[in-house]
Specification:
Length: 264
């Protein structure tokens, strides 16, 4: 199986892309809804629970892990990879950066994410390493995650908050905006309306899914070990709010949550 984890339901947007590129493989998902959002927590907290979830997934016999959370990728990604060098672990940042750099024409890139992701500046450092001439504009949007978790993906309140968060970054004349949180693709329509059609909105999950497929195809021994089928399992550490709506937005069907918090 392919193991995927996030702080809540946002990682389902990554699952959506993985289903698109690797529909034959079974996945097991863990959303840490009991402790979300990770983006307002300290780095030690994020490392602690990212490690706990990784170990839990490995005990479930997953053969590859996707950290479907930008905050966990930024604050715990390298830590987890160093502790589990025997397991292929994909984060949300490294594989998407090159594609993002190739998209900009005026070299002005906006990045929106949780406070933890933005404070770490992992995205900015990665992009500037690829092209030092880039101008990177960062903006934390802390309300976006709880809004998505509560089902506020459209409507007047969502539009007003998006306008407030994005107005300054819009003034920078960026031509690419990176959704550096896996919850944010569920707000993409509202974000696009605020930013205008001249700004390309990038969801890094697609790059991750493409590189995951390439990696598995290039490693046939690993491919044979990953369980195939559609008996996917979706675990959450607490009952996710409005999962019916979120799963419909991601998969056009309802998913059955398994509520299990193995860390209490």
């Amino acid at each position: 199986m392919i193991g995927i984890f996030d702080s809540g339901v946002g990682g389902l947007t990554v699952v959506k892309e993985i289903f698109k590129y690797l529909p034959e493989y079974q996945i097991i998902y863990f959303g840490d809804t009991a402790r979300l959002p990770y983006g307002t927590k300290g780095a030690d907290f994020v490392k602690k629970y990212s490690e706990k979830i990784t170990n839990w997934l490995l005990h479930k016999n997953v053969k590859i892990i996707v950290i479907a959370c930008n905050t966990a990728s930024a604050q715990a990604g390298e830590y987890i990879k160093n502790k589990h060098k025997e397991v292929p672990i994909f984060d949300m940042i490294n594989f998407a950066a090159e594609e993002i750099v190739s998209k900009t024409k005026n070299k002005k890139i906006g990045i929106i994410g949780t406070p933890g992701t933005i404070k770490s500046n992992t995205w900015g450092k990665k992009l500037e390493k690829l092209d030092p001439s880039l101008k990177i504009y960062l903006k934390a949007c802390p309300l976006f995650v709880p809004m998505v978790e509560m089902g506020f993906t459209k409507g007047k309140i969502t539009e007003e908050i998006a306008n407030e968060y994005l107005k300054k970054i819009k003034e920078k004349n960026i031509d690419v905006l990176v959704l550096a949180c896996t919850h944010y693709p569920l707000l993409k329509k509202v974000i696009q309306e605020v930013m205008g059609n001249k700004v390309e909105i990038i969801n890094p999950a697609e790059s991750v899914a493409k590189h995951l497929k390439k990696y598995i195809n290039n490693n046939p021994n690993l491919s044979k070990k990953i369980k195939k089928g559609t008996a996917h399992k979706f675990f959450f550490s607490d009952q996710p709010y409005d999962l019916k709506n979120i799963s419909r937005l991601c998969f056009k069907k309802k998913i059955i949550p398994i509520i299990n918090d193995p860390f209490i």
